[in-house]
Recover the amino acids of this structure.
């Protein structure tokens, strides 16, 4: 079959802006693929992806699971004889692929250009909360002992977050399906999706791939804590709803076991977030080159974590006004994070998981 | 020589391995007038004995029977204008390579003393040619290499005549904007500086420039070339640098790549012009192209077109990509290559261009360029972007290779001979053959460049792929025409930086040739040799073998076919000596007679003694040194073989074979260099000619009911010393099987 | 007419470039002093079994060059000496040469008696330390000048066996260093190159795995005068390898090692592939490359080797070499098929590149160098660079280059007032 080579000048330009410019140095020696601990033998990366980036072949990158199987270990970058930084280029390719696959596209562009749009991305939700609360109760700061429900009633949270979550899930589903279809075109699969998701999730859960990383291996634990922190936070939130409506306890006392789960999650998030942040500050090949897209996400996560912790602590120890404003910031950051989920770096959660499922199913097909 | 001293060294175990007492008598029987034995002849005291004997006029010929002629050369250096010197390597040929004290070893040593002494008696003192030498260097071609060669020759103090066929100096570079980097940091192009070089040459009062000039003929020989231009001017020159460059491969043969089918498929030369003129346009609609696709190796590295790599096309493309991106940053450049060849520091250039252009380079073969329907579709196979893939482009640039502008002198000569045959109408077959040949060769008509008056053709003979160099690795300037050197793209595929250097190198060689002739010395590889050949023409039968076989075209013919020897063209290889059935060619210290006398003086034991005798002629450049090395490693070989070093296997006259066989010698081995495409013969054709001549000898042997195995030609490389014992042994066995030479004792 | 300069020309380094520069100038009438640090001339080329693309022995051309040197009265060759001081004097150079002690003088006949009795063994630099040889010996089989050399430091205390063995009074254990001052019109530096140290290519097992060797070592292994007598074998167990892998660009074209292309390694590996296939007809050879760089007519050699049975060329740079139970494992992506493989090999030859010796030759000339350490001509100071000291190149290019350098040096010296 004759493959069409469709270079996109626009795609190349965008990639260069997002940290993929070094790809032009590549001379296709394939050292990167051979030193990558994660590259599968049958479809190695990132040599081929480097070539797609050089030529601006966005269509091929969007349909390539390898873009997501890369964990940014940077073993490739450490060894690249041309200093073409394949790790960074793959990262850039991911950020642009998120945009390519985004539904709707403009949201992808908006988040993709976080370097310029971040005030908007954070400002809009903030303004929303301030206006909504002002309209509701004139932003009256409640008296101590502080109960946040007085400021922000639960129903308001449901009214906001349930639709947003629904929309985001829909957008994610569309993007995910797009991706799933595209990658399926290049490589046949077999086996059951559900049956494969579970082992893939377990793999994600223990971070066994990260463990293979050489150069940027230190990131493994930061990412591990952060991921489990998010999962913990999700569980804690669920438990909190259970506590509120089934048990009827609100607010939960600090020594409540559910609270304990939440605090553990917060601790994991804090440790993970700071770990990654410090890692990034160190720079070099261990962290790779940070782009606005990455930074926006990391700072957002840090904001969620810190504002969350201070919200909790603030209930007891801060003047109510301060605690309330921190809480508003917390809600803002969470809303931004939710709303940008399919368009930010967070989306790797879905793409990478799908890519890993695809990989297993493709291997199964190949082995038949 | 008449007063011959034999000096025997008994050091290095010579004295203990053989009985030296009888040697004096043997030497004297063989023609020596004096004999000295010394236990360390190479020590200053030993050398002094020889020197005193020479200086006193006591001796005019010296045989040093000691170590190999390749050892202690500095010590045994005497004035060859005064004395003939021959050396016999008793240490290597006898002592180190045979059983000490053995009867056969003793006989071997005695034979070598006889042979050496006898040879010296037949040697003569050299008569160096006394010729007037013109100091001018003639440079043909005014491109980068030619201009550089002219400038360099002038800087070395020689007058220069530069002949350029067009009306402008500068050649290919006149049509070029920037150059591939020649200086650090090597990552971007340089401004083309050809105008500076042109003015430097034109303002140099040592250099006379002829433009729009063609050479009508060049007569005589190096040191005395007489050049005449069309239009009348004539001048003398001592040496010639041919820097006539290359032309691009004919893109009309590349229709599969779309050339000729769409005006938007152009060659790299056309692209160069666009960049120079600052007009990057599609020829079809004069619009600026959005994407330019460069197709590398267009007609190069391809058995159907040019099998070789032109070395500079990758660099030219890098340069053009860089030029386009500099002046037209919105134009996308894509490069399809098979192997990106940017050697040495030019790797920096490759990287620099990739960085500045975004790096749309991919490895692949361009299968075809589809020109139907306006857009150009480039079909790739085995590319990194798909086994079969297609890319659209607005302008396709074919990176075409270079074809040397050399004229094939030998082919032109053959064409001339063929026409002469047709004219003569000797027989129908002669005419038919002549016509067939003419058909094959007539494309050479009018390609002459130098128009030399050489019997072997008017231009330098070409080798593989029509480049006129001699394909040596160690001696890249050597050609088959003495005093004529190639420089630049006519020499070998090369880029501008190399052409510049080549101009300097070729100038050095041209000047060196003139300087050697000023001293009456030969040039490479026998540099410094002051003897020349002597032709005893009274006995010549006009068989033309010498004039045809001389690898360097040293011999012309008069109307009757009598050779006319040009000593200044001669490299002293002795191939003419080998070729002559009448034995009329000789060198003062290397003649048919001298070697024949060695063969005649060997003691051939009677048949019943069961001691066969064999001769091995060894090329002194490779086989003989290998033998020395075998001896240094104390390898032992058959003692029935007598070794005679020769200048070249081509310098073995078949008369020697006949002489030897008629003396009762049982077998003759000729060991020389490799022949064929990867020949190692320093005279290019020596070993090939020897093989061919020996085939004829074998036929003759069979007619005389002698076994043809008695003569064998073997190739031996300089480093194959380890093969020697086996080689000798095997030959001895063959001879034993064949039985004794029936002519023994006659 | 004379094309020569008044004072002699100094050529530093008697490898193929230095020898060629010296001879080409001398045959044009120029007085030359050719200085070599080693006890014999020939530099790197005489360590090669064959030249590419003709597969001819370097000794063949050297034979002619040695004869040219012997015959030419205008060249003085000084081996075992180094330039230790140099200063500009007038329009030329004042140079101090330091001669290493000559423990064996020119009375030596190369009879080998001393070597036979010598009790001290030293690693042989000619064989890249892969072989032990006597402390007093001929530097190598084709050495010129044909005079023995001695590693005096290796002598056991009080040993005089060689002195006693020498019948020609050629050994002097008390020789001392000598200096000599000379005037020159111009200088050509042809100090050659050093192989990139294989130990620095740790990721490919260089210096760690015995069966990972450098191309220069392969040249010695294949050479009849080498440590194995010409048998290509694995250093680990001295058995012939069945699968031989050539790893191109090992340390070249790599910003983390040598950022330039060494220009000869592709052809050297093609040539060595022929050595292997000719000697071991059952062997399988794989050459892993980035680009097959065989410019000019060298293309023929690529075509020939690529078409040979038992030889495979794979585009892909080897990322890692590890030692396993069954030999070596090479991790590499076959770029053409797009698949990663763990290729097995018994012997891996790293095509290590060339570094200009000027990088750290310690010469007293203030020579300008590019970022890679290669020297640049300075005509105004009468300093010229030839051969691989100047840029990575093969033998034919070195000779061409050196011939041109000879002309440039004479021209510059003639033009200075």
């Amino acid at each position: 079959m004759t493959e069409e080579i469709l270079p996109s000048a626009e795609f190349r330009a965008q990639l260069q802006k997002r940290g993929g410019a070094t790809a032009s140095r590549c001379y296709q020696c394939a050292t990167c693929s051979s030193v990558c601990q994660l590259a599968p033998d049958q479809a190695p990366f990132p040599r081929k992806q480097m070539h797609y980036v050089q030529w601006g072949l966005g269509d091929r990158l969007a349909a390539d699971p390898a873009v997501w199987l890369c964990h940014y270990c940077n073993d490739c970058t450490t060894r690249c004889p041309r200093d073409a930084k394949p790790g960074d280029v793959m990262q850039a390719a991911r950020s642009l692929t998120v945009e390519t696959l985004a539904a709707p596209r403009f949201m992808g562009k908006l988040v993709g250009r976080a370097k310029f749009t971040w005030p908007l991305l954070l400002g809009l939700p903030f303004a929303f909360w301030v206006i909504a609360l002002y309209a509701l109760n004139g932003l009256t700061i409640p008296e101590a002992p502080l109960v946040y429900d007085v400021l922000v009633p639960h129903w308001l949270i449901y009214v906001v977050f349930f639709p947003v979550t629904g929309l985001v899930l829909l957008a994610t589903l569309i993007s995910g399906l797009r991706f799933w279809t595209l990658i399926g075109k290049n490589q046949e699969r077999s086996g059951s999706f559900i049956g494969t998701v579970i082992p893939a999730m377990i793999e994600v859960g223990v971070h066994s791939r990260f463990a293979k990383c050489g150069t940027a291996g230190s990131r493994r634990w930061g990412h591990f804590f952060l991921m489990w922190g998010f999962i913990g936070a999700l569980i804690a939130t669920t438990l909190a709803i259970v506590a509120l409506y089934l048990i009827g306890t609100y607010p939960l006392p600090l020594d409540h076991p559910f609270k304990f789960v939440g605090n553990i999650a917060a601790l994991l998030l804090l440790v993970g977030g700071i770990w990654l942040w410090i890692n990034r500050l160190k720079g070099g090949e261990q962290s790779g080159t940070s782009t606005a897209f990455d930074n926006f996400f990391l700072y957002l996560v840090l904001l969620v974590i810190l504002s969350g912790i201070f919200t909790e602590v603030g209930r007891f120890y801060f003047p109510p006004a301060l605690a309330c404003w921190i809480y508003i910031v917390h809600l803002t950051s969470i809303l931004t994070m939710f709303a940008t989920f399919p368009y930010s770096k967070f989306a790797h959660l879905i793409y990478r998981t799908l890519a890993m499922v695809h990989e297993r199913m493709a291997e199964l097909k190949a082995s038949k | 020589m008449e007063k011959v001293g034999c000096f025997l060294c008994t050091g290095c175990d010579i004295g203990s391995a053989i009985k030296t007492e009888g040697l004096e008598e043997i030497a004297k029987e063989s023609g020596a007038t004096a004999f000295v034995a010394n236990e360390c002849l190479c020590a200053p005291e030993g050398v002094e004995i020889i020197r005193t004997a020479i200086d006193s006029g006591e001796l005019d010929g010296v045989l040093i029977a000691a170590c190999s002629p390749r050892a202690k050369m500095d010590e045994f250096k005497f004035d060859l204008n005064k004395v003939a010197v021959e050396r016999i390597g008793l240490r290597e040929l006898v002592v180190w390579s045979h059983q000490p004290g053995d009867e056969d070893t003793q006989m071997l040593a005695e034979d070598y003393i006889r042979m050496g002494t006898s040879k010296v008696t037949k040697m003569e003192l050299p008569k160096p040619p006394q010729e007037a030498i013109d100091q001018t260097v003639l440079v043909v071609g005014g491109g980068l290499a030619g201009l550089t060669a002219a400038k360099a020759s002038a800087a070395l103090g020689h007058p220069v005549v530069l002949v350029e066929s067009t009306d402008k100096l500068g050649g290919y570079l006149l049509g070029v904007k920037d150059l591939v980097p020649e200086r650090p940091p090597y990552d971007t192009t340089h401004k083309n500086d050809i105008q500076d070089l042109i003015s430097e040459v034109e303002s140099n009062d040592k250099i006379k420039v002829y433009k729009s000039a063609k050479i009508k003929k060049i007569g005589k020989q190096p040191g005395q070339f007489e050049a005449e231009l069309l239009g009348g001017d004539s001048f003398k020159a001592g040496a010639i640098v041919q820097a006539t460059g290359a032309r691009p491969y004919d893109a009309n043969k590349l229709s599969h790549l779309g050339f000729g089918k769409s005006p938007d498929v152009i060659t790299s030369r056309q692209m160069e012009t666009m960049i120079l003129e600052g007009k990057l346009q599609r020829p079809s609609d004069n619009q600026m192209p959005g994407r330019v696709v460069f197709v590398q190796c267009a007609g190069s590295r391809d058995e159907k077109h040019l099998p070789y790599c032109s070395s500079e096309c990758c660099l030219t493309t890098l340069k053009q990509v860089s030029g386009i991106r500099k002046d037209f940053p919105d134009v996308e450049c894509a490069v399809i290559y098979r192997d990106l060849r940017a050697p040495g520091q030019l790797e920096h250039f490759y990287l620099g261009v990739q960085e500045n252009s975004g790096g749309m380079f991919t490895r692949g073969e361009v299968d075809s360029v589809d020109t139907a329907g306006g857009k150009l579709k480039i079909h790739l196979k085995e590319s990194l972007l798909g086994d079969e893939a297609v890319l659209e482009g607005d302008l396709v640039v074919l990176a075409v290779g270079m074809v040397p502008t050399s004229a094939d002198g030998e082919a032109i000569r053959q064409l001339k001979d063929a026409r002469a045959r047709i004219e003569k109408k000797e027989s129908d077959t002669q005419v038919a053959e002549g016509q067939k040949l003419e058909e094959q060769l007539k494309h050479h008509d009018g390609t002459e460049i130098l128009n030399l008056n050489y019997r072997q053709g008017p231009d330098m003979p070409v080798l593989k792929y029509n480049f006129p160099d001699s394909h040596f690795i160690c001696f890249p300037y050597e050609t088959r025409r003495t005093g004529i050197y190639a420089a630049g793209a006519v020499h070998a595929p090369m880029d501008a930086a190399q052409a510049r250097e080549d101009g300097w190198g070729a100038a050095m060689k041209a000047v060196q040739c003139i300087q050697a002739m000023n001293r009456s010395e030969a040039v490479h590889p026998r540099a410094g040799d002051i003897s020349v050949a002597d032709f005893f023409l009274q006995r010549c039968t006009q068989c033309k073998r010498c004039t045809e076989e001389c690898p360097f075209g040293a011999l012309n013919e008069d109307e009757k076919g009598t050779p006319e020897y040009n000593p200044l063209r001669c490299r002293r290889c002795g191939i003419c000596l080998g070729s002559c059935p009448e034995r009329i060619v000789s060198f003062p210290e290397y003649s048919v007679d001298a070697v024949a006398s060695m063969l005649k003086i060997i003691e051939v034991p009677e048949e019943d003694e069961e001691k066969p005798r064999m001769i091995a002629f060894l090329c002194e450049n490779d086989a003989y040194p290998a033998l020395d090395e075998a001896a240094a490693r104390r390898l032992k070989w058959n003692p029935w073989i007598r070794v005679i070093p020769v200048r070249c296997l081509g310098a073995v006259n078949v008369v020697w074979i006949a002489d030897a066989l008629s003396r009762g010698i049982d077998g003759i081995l000729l060991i020389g260099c490799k022949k064929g495409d990867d020949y190692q013969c320093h005279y290019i054709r020596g070993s090939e000619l020897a093989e061919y001549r020996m085939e004829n000898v074998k036929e003759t042997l069979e007619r005389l009911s002698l076994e043809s195995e008695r003569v064998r030609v073997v190739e031996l490389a300089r480093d194959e010393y380890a093969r020697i014992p086996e080689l000798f042994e095997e030959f001895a066995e063959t001879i034993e099987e064949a039985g004794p030479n029936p002519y023994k004792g006659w | 007419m004379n094309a020569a300069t008044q004072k002699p020309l100094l050529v530093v380094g008697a490898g193929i470039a230095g020898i060629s520069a010296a001879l080409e100038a001398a045959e044009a009438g120029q007085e030359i002093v050719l200085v070599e640090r080693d006890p014999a001339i020939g530099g790197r080329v005489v360590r090669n079994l064959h030249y590419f693309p003709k597969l001819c022995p370097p000794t063949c051309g050297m034979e002619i060059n040695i004869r040219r040197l012997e015959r030419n009265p205008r060249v003085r060759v000084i081996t075992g000496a180094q330039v230790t001081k140099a200063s500009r004097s007038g329009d030329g150079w004042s140079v101090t040469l330091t001669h290493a002690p000559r423990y064996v003088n020119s009375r030596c006949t190369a009879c080998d008696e001393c070597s036979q009795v010598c009790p001290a063994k030293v690693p042989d630099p000619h064989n890249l330390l892969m072989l032990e040889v006597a402390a007093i010996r001929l530097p190598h089989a084709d050495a010129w000048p044909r005079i023995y050399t001695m590693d005096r430091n290796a002598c056991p205390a009080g040993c005089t066996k060689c002195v006693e063995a020498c019948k020609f009074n050629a050994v002097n254990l008390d020789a001392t260093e000598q200096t000599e001052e000379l005037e020159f019109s111009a200088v050509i530096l042809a100090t050659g190159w050093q192989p990139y140290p294989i130990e620095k290519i740790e990721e490919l097992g260089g210096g760690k795995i015995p069966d990972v060797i450098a191309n220069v070592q392969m040249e010695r292994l294949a050479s009849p005068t080498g440590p194995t007598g010409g048998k290509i074998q694995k250093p680990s167990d001295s058995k012939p390898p069945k699968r031989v892998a050539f790893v191109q660009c090992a340390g070249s074209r790599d910003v983390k090692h040598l950022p330039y292309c060494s220009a000869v390694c592709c052809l050297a590996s093609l040539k060595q592939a022929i050595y292997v296939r000719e000697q071991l007809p059952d062997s399988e050879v794989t050459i892993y490359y980035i680009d097959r760089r065989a410019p000019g007519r060298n293309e023929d050699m690529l075509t020939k080797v690529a078409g040979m049975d038992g030889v495979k060329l794979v585009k892909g740079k080897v990322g890692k070499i590890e030692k396993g139970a069954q030999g070596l494992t090479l991790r590499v992506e076959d770029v053409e098929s797009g698949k990663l493989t763990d290729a097995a090999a018994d012997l891996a030859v790293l095509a290590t590149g060339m570094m200009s010796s000027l990088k750290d030759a310690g010469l007293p000339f203030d020579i300008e160098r590019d970022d890679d350490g290669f020297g640049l001509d300075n005509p105004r100071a009468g300093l010229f660079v030839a051969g691989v000291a100047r840029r990575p190149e093969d033998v034919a290019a070195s000779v061409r280059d050196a011939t041109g350098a000879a002309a440039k040096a004479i021209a510059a010296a003639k033009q200075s007032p």
